[in-house]
Amino acid sequence: MVLGARPGLESASMNGMPVGTPEAPHPEHHHFVQAPVRPLDEDGIAATITGTALFALVTVVLVIMRARLDAAGHGWWLWVGVTGVAVGGIGYLYCRRRAARGA
After folding, report:
1. φ, ψ for residue 79 (rounded to 5)?
2. Same domain, 19 and 53
3. How many domains are contained in the chain?
4. Distances (CA, A) of 71 to 16, 22, 24, 83
5. Which residues contact 38 (CB under 8 A, 6 or more apart)?
6. Residue-wise pLDDT tens digits, 40-89
7. Based on the domain organization, do 69 and 32 belong to the same domain?
8. Which pTM value belongs to this model?
9. Which residues contact 27 (CB under 8 A, 6 or more apart)?
C-alpha cells in the first residue's frame, strides 16, 4: 500500500476503472493528467539562435554607448553582452551536434 493512500484504491478508482488508466489516474498523481503535447523546440536550436541574436544586438548598442557606460561606471556591461554571444555560440554548436546525433 502507498503511504497515505486510502485502502481499496490499489485496484479501482472512484469510477470503477483500473488505477493508472487515463480515465482513472494513479492515486499518487491525484486527478491531474499531463496533456500529450509535443515540445515546441525539440532540439533547442531556435531558442539558442534567438538568445544569441538578442545578446548580439545588445552588445552592438553597448559598444555604441561605451563612453557613457564608462563615465557611469558601467563599462563591465559590455562584457556581459560579449560573454552572452560567446556562450550562445557554444550553445548553438552543442545543440547542432546533439540534433545531428538524433538525441
Report:
1. -70, -25
2. no
3. 2
4. 73, 62, 65, 22
5. none
6. 778 899 999 999 999 999 999 999 999 999 999 999 999 999 999 999 99
7. no
8. 0.61
9. 2, 5, 6, 9, 13, 19
